[in-house]
Amino acid sequence: MSEPIVIVGAGIGGLSCALALAHRGHAVRVMERATQLEEIGAGLQLSPNACHCLRQIGTLEQVESAATAPNNIHVRSGRSGRTVTRLPLNPYLPGLYGAPYLVVHRADLQSALLAACLNHPSVDIHYGHAFASREPRSEGLERASFTTSSGTVAFDTPLLIGADGVWSAVRKTIPGAAEVAFSGRTAYRATLPADQIPAAEMQDTGLWLGSEAHLVHYPLQNGTAFNLVALIKEDWNEETWSAPVSRQTFLKTFKRWSPAARTLLEKPDTWLKWALCGVEARAPWGVDRTLLMGDAAHGMLPFAAQGAAMAIEDGAVLAHLATRHLDAPDTLRQSYETARQERVAKVQALARSNGEIYHLSGPLALARDTFMRVAGAKNLLRRQDWIYRWQPPAL
Prior knowledge:
- The chain is α/β, with parallel strands linked by helices.
- It has a domain at 5-69 and 99-179 and 280-357: 3-Layer(bba) Sandwich (FAD/NAD(P)-binding domain), CATH 3.50.50.
- The protein contains 13 helices and 19 strands.
- The protein has an eight-stranded mixed sheet, with helices on both faces.
- Strand 8 and strand 9 (142-148) form a beta hairpin.
- Helix 2 (48-56) packs across helix 9 (307-325) and helix 9 (307-325) packs antiparallel against helix 10.
- The radius of gyration is 21 Å and the shape is globular.
């Protein structure tokens, strides 16, 4: 078909999908609501399954140049500060799976994907275009309309892809699609210069486990920055889904934590608080010639560190299937849901389970820590083998 495929959203999922499609010979229009791309969030983790996809679309080398490859996940008790276990990451995982485990600033990953899109002749990016509506066309196309500062524009496309995040406007046009649900968890995020952090904390990803809360941190931007994320089980009473919070208010949750953990938590002057919302994966992902991907299809808790990876995987699979079934939208939709829904739902379930395990207290926390020590680090990592060994369909 001569009309380009249209992707709504120039985030990590949308841009990686655009590149995957372009590498398979498709013309792509990426429609972004913002007038320019800005940094949203802070750090994220890219396991080998995601890195295989980035390598296939030609962006892994650039991402690696801005990322950090931590040695281990250093798991500690939030209350005592004692080490529970160290899970090996690099070079252990590359030896098993043929790709690294990276931590990267979201803006650096997005910049690498954007640069590759801008350099590809088959990808066209439009800013300041907010998705408004869609309608099927009798010629086997979908018409997607967008609101701009000067009015409304419309494009005909053989495939409309909603990659517009957990609050997806495209998802609202799909009958039976899942609703956004608040998880009962919040995330507090802050980023600091590396010179404010002890050198020992700059080598690993840190995971501190505590009652009703846990802390994750890791180095970013080639070790020049440090990302902290505190995740808490609590209600949400703000008028928006993100809000700044003072250090004094935030630290009350961690008053019984170890001095080492509190020293890290006290360093940022302010934190940005986010409500963690999810989208159930086992719901329709499409209708007509419209499909969802990434958080628009399956927003998940970050407790398995797979949100970005699942969006990147979606893009690789969707590009592969679109190349085979673009002229048969029902087959494309069914094949896509069959290929992705169960895997993503399983990751969602793992993330929920991890959240419960991380937040245990009393005798159950003691039993958890004892099990993690006795089981052995490499045996614990095998829980993730089914995630990490996944690779994208060949080009």
